[in-house]
Write a structure and sequence with these properties.
Length: 476
């Protein structure tokens, strides 16, 4: 499936069947197959494969070696890709068969050099695809196949990692190093290996429900690119924010977007904080313009990011009863308007660049955190104990004078922007399960995204891409 979706192809199927192949070297066929004109092999990563073979002078890497230990290990690895949450059908299973490989190695004269070259190339392409899928994910919405194949990204390059793995004593272990090193991912991978290897002993068995759920969340973790350093992770289905330091973690409750205004997944960096982020509306405007509109539209305040407070600065949730009380004595109340996606942003906002214009912020509606399920906001993320989180962020920044500035600004209700010298990575994920102490913990699929991703990973990605709207693609 991967080849048909992501590879490059040519309508020209003119092969080399009628040529006299035995008097042509394997390297000659590799050069011919990887030429720019008339490609006859469908590859997922043709440019990466060419770069790989350029380091060998376009000679065979797997089937013509005196020591074929790594070749057999590579085949075994491709047999058991379900242990990594991936599917065998993406790695040339119809062409990469054991019987012809045995013949190539044990009785090389019986197999043409053309077939040896083709097998060698396909094995390289399969390993490069596997390592890219291990590292970036199979369906990463940010790093698609053509982008990876161009080799222009500054970080991981599968062909280089494969070349390095060939120099290692533990070849399989070196390939596995392409995977994320985050604790969450490692726990899932260990559990999946246990379920696939120890319990099932059959890498080709159709994934059952628990295995599938772990696999799709491993895919999401590959997209998140969470490393072992300091970071903030907001996981939507568990309604939690985790501040991760190398030596410890702090967990906060969060409120996330409603199903009608879902919080997106993304990777970014918190670069500054804002105190008292709402501005007060002139009382005359509040009484003469806003209240009449709210009387005719119950959602007017929320839809326009207005929050109403009494004279003691208590937040007032708008409903028919409270609105009647406000209309009766409007001078006992006032309104503030926020710049973000929620109507009331509390005393603190954490800013990070993103295309969805969402924020992480405090809220005056602290009672929301008493709910077990919390998809209650208008896309933005509300965090409990925002002050404590701000303290952790500023402590990481290393400038305690900013903590004094922060407290002073809030105490005097001043709007202030406090920049961070060291941006804090923030990852918003959609993990519907985790593995803790060897046990799988499931969370409610609040945006109903698991089925879409399962279908894309294990069935027809092309059909799914056509059917899904751009709005929902980002939640896989």
């Amino acid at each position: 499936m991967l080849c048909s979706l992501l590879g490059f192809a040519s309508k020209n199927t003119v092969g080399l069947k009628n040529q006299k192949l035995n008097d042509t070297s394997v390297g000659s066929f590799i050069r011919q197959y990887l030429g720019d004109s008339n490609p006859v092999i469908l590859l997922a990563y043709p440019k990466s494969v060419r770069r790989f073979y350029n380091t060998f002078g376009m000679e065979a890497a797997w089937v013509c070696q005196s020591n074929t230990r790594q070749t057999w290990q590579a085949m075994m690895l491709l047999d058991c890709v379900l242990q990594y949450g991936l599917t065998p059908g993406d790695y040339h299973p119809r062409e990469l068969l054991y019987d012809p490989l045995h013949t190539m190695i044990e009785e090389p004269a019986r197999i043409s050099n053309a077939k040896k070259a083709k097998f060698d190339i396909l094995l390289t392409d399969a390993l490069i695809a596997l390592m890219n899928n291990m590292h970036y994910g199979k369906l990463n919405p940010q790093y698609w196949t053509d982008l990876l194949d161009d080799g222009l990204l500054p970080s991981f390059h599968a062909e280089s990692a494969l070349l390095s793995a060939r120099q290692q004593v533990e070849f399989i272990r070196a390939i596995e190093m392409a995977q994320p090193h985050a604790i969450q991912y490692t726990a899932m991978q260990d559990k999946l290996r246990q379920l696939r290897g120890v319990y099932k002993e059959d890498c080709y068995e159709t994934p059952e429900t628990e295995v599938t759920k772990i696999a799709i969340n491993m895919e999401r973790l590959r997209w998140a690119a969470i490393d072992s350093g300091l970071n903030i992770q907001v996981n939507i289905p568990s309604y939690t924010l985790t501040f991760v330091r190398p030596e410890t973690t702090f967990v906060f409750k969060v409120v996330v977007g409603k199903t009608t205004a879902p919080t997106p997944t993304l990777n970014s960096n918190i670069t500054y904080l804002t105190t008292f982020p709402e501005w007060k509306i002139a009382q005359q405007i509040f009484v003469n313009q806003l209240l009449p509109k709210a009387k005719h539209d119950a959602d007017f305040f929320e839809n326009n990011h207005y929050a109403v407070y009494d004279r003691l600065n208590n937040y007032i949730a708008i409903n028919p009863k409270t609105l009647a009380a406000i209309e009766k004595n409007p001078n006992l109340y006032y309104a503030r308007q926020s710049f973000g996606c929620d109507n009331a942003m509390g005393q603190l906002v954490f800013h990070f660049q993103n295309m969805y214009d969402i924020y992480l912020h405090d809220t005056p509606e602290q009672q929301m955190f008493d709910n077990q399920e919390r998809p209650l906001s208008h896309t933005c993320i509300r965090v409990e104990k925002a002050w404590q989180l701000a303290g952790l962020v500023i402590a990481y920044d290393g400038d305690q004078s900013k903590m004094i500035l922060l407290k002073k600004a809030v105490d005097k209700k001043l709007t202030r922007n406090i920049s961070l010298r060291k941006p804090v990575p923030i990852k918003i994920t959609y993990l519907t399960c985790e593995v803790k102490e060897g046990q799988v913990i499931n969370y409610k699929d609040i945006y109903d995204m698991d089925k879409s991703l399962e279908f894309a990973l294990y069935h027809n990605h092309e059909t799914l891409t056509i059917k899904l709207s751009n709005k929902w693609k980002r939640f896989w």
